[in-house]
């Protein structure tokens, strides 16, 4: 199962890298044009955030390649964790067969690890953000991510507790959904938001295009991970009976 998690993670990372190249990178280049314009017109003296010097330490081509490699490495790491969690939660996940369960787990992972932090601490393009707030932004993002993971632990525990006390499945599902809404609402209400403000020279459509592109990258990773992992498990399950018959000496159908 770990090997399948690694393979699915590689495919998920490659899918995320393709989205970075096709969707995220064009938006980044639009943001870099604004940064270059600031450098030409003294943006730092006007109080606008500046990033780097006149000459970048790493070329854009190298940054794109590095981003793709990083996406694959992250995909492998997520795939390993995904496989471990799936192995432990396999019998508790809803869905028809391992393929359906893998998709359900991928949807839960995307919602808790990617969507909730993106809603609370949204990604910003290079032209937005003060370098001095990187530490605070990272801390808030990590706190939101951990709270999202905690919700995925608390709600199933609540569901198991309700299973012994509530006979109607519809009532139990309604209470589970209410608990998710309540807990997510508490996170959104009490976790501080991003400390950065969007500068006046950055168009609103650029900011939203970047945030949607970043979310699309994460969605591609989780969707590909769930699809690939589920298909690999289904394929292994379909091949297992023949393997057993071959090992026991029984005739293998053509």
Key traits:
74% helix; 6 helices; disordered C terminus; mainly alpha; flat; 254 residues
Chain-wise SSE layout:
Elements: H1 2-40, H2 60-89, H3 97-120, H4 134-163, H5 169-190, H6 204-247
Helix pairs in contact: 1-2, 1-6, 3-4, 3-6, 4-5
Describe this structure in words.
It is a single chain. This protein has 254 residues and is mostly helical. Helix content is 74%, strand content 0%. It is flat. The chain starts with a helix and ends in a 7-residue tail after the last helix.
* Structural class by helix and strand composition: mainly alpha
| H/E element sequence | HHHHHH
Helix content: over 70%
Largest sheet: none
In round numbers, the mean pLDDT is 85
Distance between the termini: 27 Å
List the uncertain runs: 242-254
Classify the beta-strand content into a percent band.
Answer: under 5%
**How many helices in DSSP terms?**
6
Please give a quick description of this structure.
The chain has helices at residues 2-40, 60-89, 97-120, 134-163, 169-190, 204-247.
């Amino acid at each position: 199962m770990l090997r399948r998690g690694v393979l699915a993670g590689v495919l998920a990372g490659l899918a995320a890298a393709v989205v970075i190249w096709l969707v995220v990178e064009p938006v980044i280049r639009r943001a870099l044009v604004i940064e270059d314009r600031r450098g030409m017109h003294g943006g730092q003296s006007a109080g606008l955030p500046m990033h780097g010097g006149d000459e970048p330490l790493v070329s854009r081509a190298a940054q794109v390649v590095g981003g793709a490699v990083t996406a694959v490495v992250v995909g492998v790491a997520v795939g390993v964790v995904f496989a471990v969690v799936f192995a432990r939660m396999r019998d508790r996940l809803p869905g028809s067969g391992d393929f359906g369960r893998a998709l359900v787990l991928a949807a839960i992972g995307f919602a808790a690890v990617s969507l909730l932090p993106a809603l609370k601490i949204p990604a910003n393009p290079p032209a937005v953000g003060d370098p001095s707030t990187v530490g605070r932004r990272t801390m808030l993002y990590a706190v939101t991510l951990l709270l999202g993971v905690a919700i995925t632990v608390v709600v199933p525990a609540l569901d198991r507790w309700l299973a012994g006390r509530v006979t109607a499945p519809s009532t139990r599902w309604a209470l589970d959904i209410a608990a998710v809404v309540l807990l997510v609402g508490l996170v959104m209400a009490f976790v501080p938001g991003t400390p950065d403000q969007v500068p006046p020279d950055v168009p609103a459509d650029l900011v939203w295009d970047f945030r949607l592109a970043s979310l699309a990258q994460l969605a591609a990773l989780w969707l590909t991970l769930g699809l690939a992992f589920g298909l690999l498990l289904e394929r292994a399950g379909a091949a297992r009976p023949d393997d057993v018959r071959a090992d026991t000496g029984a005739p293998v159908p053509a």
